[in-house]
Amino acid sequence: MDKVIAWTQKKIEGTVILPASKSESNRALVLSALAGGGMPENLSDSDDTRVLAEALKQAGGLVDVGHAGTSMRFLAAYFALREGVWELTGSERMKQRPIKVLVEALWELGAKIEYLGKEGFPPLWIGNSVLKGERTISLDAAVSSQYISALMMIAPLLKGGLVIDLKGKVISADYIRMTAEMMRCFGVNTRFEGKRVLIPEGVYAPVSFRVSADWSAASFFYELLAITEEGEIFLPGLYIDSLQGDARQVDLWRQLGVTTEKVVGGVRLSANSDRVARFEADLSGMPDVALPVIVACCLSDTPFHLTGLDTLYIKECDRVMAVTREAGKLGYGLQIPARGELCWDRVRNACTTLEIDTYQDHRMAMAFAPAGVRYCGLIVRDADVVSKSFPGFWEQYDHLVM
Ligand SMILES: O=C(O)C1=C[C@@H](OP(=O)(O)O)[C@@H](O)[C@H](O)C1
Ligand SMILES: C=C(OP(=O)(O)O)C(=O)O
Predict the structure, then answer these.
(1) In terms of domains, do 178 and 284 share one?
(2) For the domain that residue 246 is a member of, what is the CATH number?
(3) Which of 199, 227, 260 is the C-terminal boundary of a domain?
(4) Could you say which of 199, 233, 258 is where a domain stops?
(5) Taking 90 as the threshold, does the pLDDT of residue 7 lie above it?
(6) Most exposed among 47, 130, 260, 323, judged by the fewest C-beta atoms under 10 Å?
């Protein structure tokens, strides 16, 4: 499905129902499975959470997670712990997203895992492993925090627990903290000593964890207000004091003209025209808000220099390439000064087409949607890719904009 966006010039004002957090849901599902009971409440309706929930019910056999990276990484560790034989695969893109760091760590614990395709990438064969604990493993923390979260969650079930030494730059660190916080909710206390994570042997309690609204999904509505420079949006169920690190995006958007107010039952976003002359940020802690920030800066004519984008190359698509190419169609000349960086110095060329490709990436579709309020008739190709994290996105977007 392609989506044509025609803004009716109405004021952006209303309530947006966000999906439940995909990251909280996926952790809650794995932790409940490891606890041997308890059903998380208010689970995300995203494709990624759905495939994980189904996979956790399987006693073995073929499991295809599609585009769901978190589900792939969490399941690799979970299946290695469980009895049974699995073939764990995903979409063509998933077969290009690395998993070597996690597989090598699991091998060190005694897992029997084989690559069924290219070395270092899914699909994986995982079978009847007996994992050993009471050891320290070292892990490259600069590729994906999901490997670390995956290991942390199974660690209490290993005899003697596990110590994980994080090597190199620790990216997406708030996701590691979210994992530790959620493990605590399920009864296991993890300790951090600098770049060392200490997980004791323990037993998870089958609690009924309630998932809250998704901060990463909120970023596209911040973006919309940053572009329109006026309007207000109420986001029920979103709390500043959240387990999700993306709650810290509040500070980024303040610099781009959107303020956040804590109100009863959620937060209210308000737009103004007060923004920094040049936006600079290291987004290595918040990779999922990078695309909406980039498109918001371009469309609000705010030059920017972003660093810490190294992990964007291995997401659902190569997001650095994809956003540079698609913003380029609208005439914005983005530049890549070094790997993991992106900048824009207000270089404007002619707009060549209003057709935006989305590269099977939900965040590409959602990040370019707000551009439709500046470019009437903008077409977002394969708009249904949003179901990976936010199936109701277009419904929520339409009632605000069209
Ligand atoms: O653990 C998680 O829930 C996630 C971690 C992040 O990935 P990386 O650690 O690979 O950056 C993030 O981009 C992803 O959407 C969700
Ligand atoms: C990177 C993402 O997800 P995953 O890695 O779980 O596929 C995302 O949702 O933007």
Answers:
(1) no
(2) 3.65.10.10
(3) 199
(4) 199
(5) no
(6) 130
Q: For residue range 158-174, what is the model confidence (pLDDT) as tens digits?
A: 999 999 999 999 999 99
Mean pLDDT of the chain: 97
If pLDDT is split at 50, 70 and 90, which confidence band does 147 have?
very high
Cβ-contact 58, 70 below 8 angstroms: no
Kindly report the pTM of this predicted structure. 0.98
Establish whether 288 is a catalytic residue: yes
Task: Determine the average pLDDT of the residues in 1-17.
Answer: 91
Quote the tokens at residue 336.
């890549």
Pocket lining: 23 vs ligand 2, CB cutoff 6 Å: no
DSSP 3-state assignment of 365? Answer: helix
> Structural domain tally of the chain?
2
Catalytic option among 174, 214, 288, 310: 288
- Ligand 1 atom closest to 288 (CA): 13
Both 65 and 157 in one domain: the answer is: yes
- Structural domain that includes position 172: 22-199
Q: What is the largest CA-CA distance in the chain?
A: 63
- Residue 144: partners with Cβ closer than 8 Å, 6 or more residues away: 69, 73, 98, 101, 171, 172, 311, 314
With tokens 């050891």, the residue in question is 135
Which ligand is the nearest neighbour of the Cα of 366?
2
What ipTM score was computed for the predicted complex, to two decimals? 0.99
Counting atoms of ligand 2 from 1, which one is nearest the CA of 288? 10
Q: Is the same domain home to 247 and 380?
A: yes
Distance 153 CA to ligand 1 centre (A): 15
Determine which residue's CA is closest to atom 10 belonging to ligand 1: 144
Other CB atoms within 10 Å distance of the CB of residue 327: 24
Is 205 within the bounds of a domain?
Answer: no
Task: Specify whether 160 is located in the same domain as 99.
Answer: yes
Domain membership flag for residue 208: no
Q: pLDDT tier at 11 (50, 70, 90 boundaries)?
A: confident
Q: Flag whether pLDDT at 10 surpasses 90.
A: no
- Are 236 and 343 in the same domain? yes
Q: Quick: pLDDT tens for 66-81.
A: 999 999 999 999 999 9
Q: Is residue 263 part of a domain?
A: yes
Q: Would you give the end-to-end CA distance of the chain in angstroms? A: 18
Query: 139 near 148, Cβ under 8 Å?
Result: yes
Same domain, 15 and 80: no
Q: What is the mean pLDDT of residues 246-273?
A: 97
The pLDDT of residue 128 is 85
